[in-house]
Each structure stands twice: as C-alpha cells, then as structure tokens.
Amino acid sequence: MAQPGLVLPTPSMQSQIHELAKTLPPPRRQNTACDNCRSRKVKCHRIPGQEKCQHCQSKNYACTHFVQQATSERKRNSTTARKPRNPSSVASPLSPSTSIGSSVLSPISDNGIHNIPPYLMPSGTSLPLVFKYGFYPPITLETPTRDVLTYLFAPPEDAPSDSNILNSGRTKSPYDLWGDQAVKLEDDVFKSELAFDLMEIYFQIVHSRLPLLNPTQFRNRLRTSLSSNPGSDKPLHPALVATVLAWGTKFSEHPLLIADRRAHNGQSLMSKALINRTRDLAEALKVHRIANQDHVVIGLLVETLQSQNPDDPSAFHGFWLTAATRHLLDLQINHKSVAARIPDTETRGTLIFAWWMACICDAYSSLYYRHKPVLDDDDYDIDFYTVDPPVSQDGGKPSPREQLEFLGYYRAAHSLARTARQMSRQLWRPITDADGIPFETLRTFASALRIWREKYLAHVGVPKNYNAGWDFVTTVSCFASDAQYHVMWIVLFNALDEFGVKELNENDRSGTPPENVQNRSYIEDSMRRVGEEALNGALRIAALTSVLTANEYLKLDPAVVEFHIIAAGHLLARLGRQEVSTCIVGLEQYSHSYEEAGDHAQDIRKTYEQVRSSGIDLNHMAALIKQIAAFPTTTTEPENPPGGREPMSPSVLGSFQMNGMLNMDGAGILMDVDEETTAFVAQSKNETSYM
C-alpha cells in the first residue's frame, strides 16, 4: 500500500525515465584491481576460484586490495558524515564520540597521556599506514622485521614489464636492474643474511662517527626478530631498521653491491632505492611528526644518509635535522633538569648525545647552506655530562661516544658551532647582502676564530706528534676537527668577496675619493689577512684530503668532511692553485658513496680551467688577493686603529703557526707546513695533472 503523500510515477512518466536512461553514459565500472597491478598500471586478471591474480601469482606477491578497501571506507565515512546528527542527548552507537574509528584515530586525546614523562611517550599507534599504494601491504610499528625486509629488498619499481619477462622460455628476474647477483634476493634466507651483513657495516663505519645506537642491543633485537621464533617482544622500529640497512649499502663491499656498482658506472641503484624507501617509510610512520627517542635517532641518521647537495629537490634541505631538533625540544632535553631525571642511563645517554649532535649540525648547516639556524644560544642550559675518563663496563675499550666526550671533541665542536651560528645570523641577512659586512662584525668573527684556535685546535686537530698507530675514531675525528676550523675562514672569505665591507661599499657608492674612508688601510689589511687565513685553510684541507684519499678513508666517510673538501676545492680553483687536484681526486673517491661529490669535482675542474685561461675571477677581494703570499703561514691580530678599541691580548691571539701534518703518502713522517707545502707543490708539478 502506498504511503500517504507519496506520488507514484504514471506509466507515461516511467516511459520517459526509461528513454532518458538510454541516453546517459554507462555507469563507471568499479576498479577491482589488486594493489600490485594498480601500482604497475597493468591489467589485473584473476581466474575465478583462485586467490591471486595472474600477475601476483607469477611474481609470488601477496595479492592485496588495500587501496580498494580504503576507497570503500572513505565512501562509507563520507556517507555517514552527511547523515543528520542524532538530536538525542544519548550518544548514538554511530556517533563520532563513540565510534571505534574515532577512538583509535585520536589516541592523543587521552588526558592521561599528559602525565607520562616526555621521554616515555609512546612511539605511535598500531594503525596501518599506507605509504606505497598498491606495492606492499601497509607497514605498522608492529610489523614483523621479516616483512620490513620484504619491502626494502623488493624488486626495483622500474623493473622490466610483464611483456619482457619471458625470454626464450627462461624467466627473467625482476631484480636484474640491480646487477647479476641481485636475483639472490628472491630467497628469504639470503635477505636475512644480507641484512646482518649491512648492519655490521653500519656499526663498523657509521656508528664510529655517529654513535646514536647501542650496538649490542640492536644486534640482539634484530637477530631475535629474524629468528624462527621471534617471541612476543616488540620488533625494532621499521624505519630504524631501514635506515641502518640503507647506510650499510653505501659502504658495503658485498658481492651483490659490487655487481650493482659495476653495472652502473660505480653507482649502486640498489642503495639509491633503499634510501628512497627508507625516507618514504619514515614519512609514512610519522617520524617527523611524533616526538620520541626512536624518531629523534632516525631523523638524525636519515639527514646525512641523503644527498648533501642543497640544489637536489629530493635530498638535503635540513628537513630531517629540523624535525629531530624540534622533537628534542618537545621532549625538553634542552633542559638540564629534565635530562637529569631520565632514569634509564642508556636512554639518557642517547638523548643527550642526540641533542649535542643536533645542536652542532644545526649551526654548521645554517652557515654552510645559508639559512637561519633553528636554535639560539639561550635555548638550552644542558651540560656535557662526561667529566671522568671513560671506563667500559665490560673491561674493554670505551664506546666511541664516551671516547669522543673524554677527548673533548664535542666541547670544541660546540664552541665553534656557536661562532658558526652567530656568523650565519649576521652574514646571510638581506641587509648584509645589500650593504655589505660591517667592519666591526668582520673583526668580531676573525677574533672569535683565532680565540678558538688558541684554545682548542692543538687538542682536537692534527698535532705535530701525530701517532700513526691511533685508532680509527681518534684519527678521523682529529682530521675532521682540523678541517672544520679551517673551512670557517673559507666561508668568511667567500662572504667578504661577495658582499664586501659596508664602510668601503658606502664610500664607493657615494663617489667620494677612496682615501676619505677612515682607517681604509686598516680595513683592507684586515681583509687581506682573512684572505691569508682562507688560503691557508684551503691548503691545509687539501693536505688532509690527500692523506684521507691515500688511505681510502673518503669511501667510508658519512659526509662529515664532504663540504670542507668542496669549499677548499672551489677556493683553490678560483685562485688558480694547482693544489686543487688533491680536492678533485678526493671528491671523486667520495662519489663512491655520495654521487653528488663527483659532480662537485667536475665543477671545480671547470672553474680551475677557466681561471687558468682567463685569470682570477673575484669581486671585492680581487685587488687584495694579489698581496697574499704564496704560502701564508702566520697571521696576527691587526693593530688597533686610531681612536678604536683596545686590541686583544697577545697572549690570547698571538701569532698562528700551523700544526704539523702528515706527508702526502700517509706514512706518518712529520714536517713543518712550509716544507710540506713546498714538497707538495713540487710533487704536483712532476705528476700528471688531473685537470
């Protein structure tokens, strides 16, 4: 029986509706393709009665439909959202306040979470996070490590299509793009063995420079996770596992990686793929959004894992470093009182070391890549917490972290980082670009660098009594600290050449005679001395690079001295110095793990060739650079100008005699800088030029 008020269509109306329906386009057929076929944009053909489609069955993939389920869920949610809210005061079972989806998707709304100490905040939710639609099932924090390896070591996305798989009856492996050894990745046992090998490479090479993990704990957890009986322990963070293994591919000499590099002109496509997948996985698991210990460590490790070229849109922009720094601020590790209350010594040590690493890297990267630092000097009151000689609990050698703390490298690096932070805030301002560097600012930075040199360089740089028997940590750390100081002068020189001194610029723009500038000779003398320090620093870095290259250490460096070599190489090339060949060779070796280093080597070579053919190309420093000696070895604080402030104490500044350094063959023979530099130039003239 028809309801009251309901008008039924007449036969004439039904006929009109039927005719109209014929003219409408056919309804859109629902896409039921599986995730793998959807990702590869191929037809998904599944025979009725079979669980997998033909494509997934031939590749032995899991035939999943997560995208289709997510689409259906969104449609259901949007339909529910359009329904009128229940006017009753009693919550409806489908109301947002009581729905299961709402309670799970909003875990942070729990008031009890505010009573948890910040360093014990949960790592996140166990909800599935779809990060590569159609390629793999969603990975969560609860995903077994074996499944994470399946994602990391899956075939390359641009593997041959289905039409090219069959070749004369022989199945072509989708791993062929990664070299002739990569087909072994089809075996799950081999994946586990490779994972252990890459992990060991990480701890042998990267951990000694960036000691952010507990090697024993990580090894045991990974071994347990990949065993036949993983137990009920929570697996390692998937993004952390991915980061460690991706680092391993950079430096591993495993036959699989060697074959991959041999097939691609020295570059590993597998390593690039793992780095991209690591970054995608970290983004999907909200590593950059949720503050906890794992995410701090992952952020700091991913930052230097990527390309360090600031012009690369998919690589270095300080994103992960900034995220890790803000996580540390959210966890209040910058407060001494909070850090001291962390009960677990391992957690406390990791977070405090991570703080200093983030603090120092933030300052240096802002100076190198010309952006404002995240931190200020007054953003933290935390102390260095190791004051006694480190003693290992098991009676063995101290950890790299403890060793570097005791030797004073972090303290010296932080002191220089504060100067770098101040330089960044003053040099890269728009007003400095327009007007130039105020002379008082230039003089302040020069004095700060000389004070640091007198206080720290002899302790953390390469000393005259260098012992070739030093361990790896001490050796590479003192080389990096030495180069770190000298590259500061190069950065200051480049800014001075680009912007000039404000007082001289104002005089030149006004058109008044040059001699009308008060203390002009004093200003130009100070500029010349900055040029001496910069050239001195570039020669020093070139000599250190030669030693590192001879020992093939640059193949194993996680981008610690890459910028130093690039900056020194560019300056030597702009000045037409033959010593630039050392930097070029070093960067070519660096390209073994950082491809952009090879591009910088080519740019430096082109600059050198142009300068040799057309002359030195400088701006504000062009006239003064001719007054710099070929091998500057001593620089002093300029005398105080008439009417100016009192000069710094000679006992603090004094004259600078560069530390002795290794000879160019790395044999450990010590020479003064004059003898070594002269020998180096003579050697360069006798050898075949790299230009």
Automatic annotation (TrEMBL):
It holds the Pfam family Zn_clus. Keywords: Metal-binding, Nucleus. Coiled coil: none annotated. GO terms for molecular function: DNA binding; DNA-binding transcription factor activity, RNA polymerase II-specific; zinc ion binding. Residues 70-103, 633-652 are annotated as: Disordered. The keyword Nucleus applies. GO terms for biological process: DNA-templated transcription; nitrogen catabolite activation of transcription from RNA polymerase II promoter. GO terms for cellular component: nucleus. InterPro entries: Carb_Metab_Trans_Reg (IPR050797), XnlR_reg_dom (IPR007219), Zn2-C6_fun-type_DNA-bd_sf (IPR036864), Zn2Cys6_DnaBD (IPR001138). This is Zn(2)-C6 fungal-type domain-containing protein. It comes from Lentinula raphanica.
